[in-house]
Amino acid sequence: MVTNIQKILVTGGAGFIGSNLVDALLLSGHSVRIADNFSTGFRRFFQTNENNPAFEILDINLVEEDSCHQAVEGCDVVYHLAANADVRFGWQHPLRDTQQNLVVTQNLLEACRKQGIRKFIFSSTGSVYGRAKQIPTSEDCPFPTQTSLYAASKLAAEGLISAYAEAGVVDATIFRFVSILGQRYTHGHVFDFVKQLLNDPSRLKVLGDGNQTKSYLHVNDCVVALVRASDSNSKLDIFNLGTNETVTVNQSIKIICNTLNCDPLIHYTGGAEGWVGDNPHIFLDTTAARATGWLPDKTISDSIRETVEWLVASDWVFLQRSE
Amino acid sequence: MVTNIQKILVTGGAGFIGSNLVDALLLSGHSVRIADNFSTGFRRFFQTNENNPAFEILDINLVEEDSCHQAVEGCDVVYHLAANADVRFGWQHPLRDTQQNLVVTQNLLEACRKQGIRKFIFSSTGSVYGRAKQIPTSEDCPFPTQTSLYAASKLAAEGLISAYAEAGVVDATIFRFVSILGQRYTHGHVFDFVKQLLNDPSRLKVLGDGNQTKSYLHVNDCVVALVRASDSNSKLDIFNLGTNETVTVNQSIKIICNTLNCDPLIHYTGGAEGWVGDNPHIFLDTTAARATGWLPDKTISDSIRETVEWLVASDWVFLQRSE
User: Fold this and answer.
1) Interfacial B residues in 107-166 facing A (CB < 8 Å)
2) What is the predicted ipTM?
3) Please, which contacts does A226-231 make with residues 24 or more away whose CB atoms are closer than 8 Å?
4) CATH architecture of the domain with residue range B7-180+216-241
């Protein structure tokens, strides 16, 4: 139990990271409202909290301004995690990232401004570093250029949040994540591989050459950092979140296959990048976050193994997710 | 005359920089279409070109997608200069920068994508460097945070353009300008000061303490760089544009007063920043642009004096501009 009980909004609260954050906030005694359009989130993530009076679900579309006002009403803290997370297929609907990641962010900031809500916490991405010239990449690395619509929209949202913080409208914390793994993980590399191997353990198709370096963080470690941020009253903090390790796609395939006890024939599509705009090497310098006392607990290997185990135990997600 | 005659769109072509660019492009023999909603642009900037068959005016609002398709149709090159340039009063209409600077940029990029137009040239701003840690500031300075809605929207547009360039949709050149001066300059510090002094040469109100360092570039030098960019076929270039000097606001007041032959009593509002989000010190490292052979011709002192002389000779602008 915490002494400072707060009313907290989590946008995208029915998603992977969001729902894990909600559990942690409720456990700490806070009152939590989620705003989610359930386009990729799941109600079953809240089975244990359905009748919790400190928990409220708003099934709304935040692209509409009124929804944002409704969502933030009476809150002390806003965690803005809702986003179009379909990084890979951005070019099939190029306006979607701008609408869902930028316009929604500004609608929420305006709602906070009008209702006097002080604390705004945002989930950005290590992809904003593009093809980083400095590895591991620190928050103040050389000014990068963008390589995907997804990252461009996240950077755009960061810029808006910074301007609002600078003007004294909100205190803001921006987190730039590596890829997150763990319970309720429902899209990305590991998801795709496990799905393929559960269908057919004898073969695996891999985008690129398998040598892309990836950095992963367990969702529990991510959530610990997010929860701590609600207490900060700095005007603007930007923190990378990740582990001090990387794995290649080939190494993560090995861990997955060991966990699933299979030995597939691997077909590589070739090339150094998985898809147009994929950042082949993401490895974040997390010195700044660690200086606040945060320390990730799980290794990448643990995270991959636990994710595979959760997916195997939760195979309903493969029926719900067509990708 | 150039050998490679092109059909060129200039958005915001009726504005200060745009109309000067149009003159230069027409002089080079190109065919030029402008797209402008004339909210801040002036038809009289085109008096000499009104009957030029190589010149076309589209009076349209680019926030509408269809207008963007109409604007780029048949063009080889797009100069995207249209923007909400009201930096100072951004907080009176916080969604305007996003709409006019970001959504329009994406509508244009989509129109280019659908119509196969290869070259996209964009006017960004040195304000994207926020409170720069490195002075003079180079294009790859430490990753900055945003201090105004205007700069945040320009950075957001840069991010989108980079993502489109990265995906091979367009070849792009992004220019980050210091403040531009010269003929047809119709808003900003120097405009405000000259307007005040023409009304009453005995007194002058100055935002801040007068010690803010400003960097200016003459519009002719800016246009030379813009015109050269149409020939480049790099995937993505980002260039700072400015002179190798700075002036303080007080120094520029001195040049203005000398030119106007007046000696006002100066009232400072105080504080190091002119307004919320004003960047008190902008000084750009232009090594990259100079490496391409570009070299500014006019000093800041020349630029201020010529601007004042143009404003005095064109006092109709003060009747049209209420700010």
Assistant:
1) 109-110, 113, 130, 133, 139-149, 151-153, 155-156, 158-160, 162-163, 166
2) 0.92
3) A226/A17, A226/A21, A226/A24, A226/A79, A226/A121, A226/A123, A226/A175, A227/A21, A227/A24, A227/A25, A227/A28, A228/A292, A228/A293, A228/A294, A229/A121, A229/A173, A229/A175, A230/A6, A230/A8, A230/A77, A230/A79, A230/A119, A230/A121, A231/A4
4) 3-Layer(aba) Sandwich (3.40)
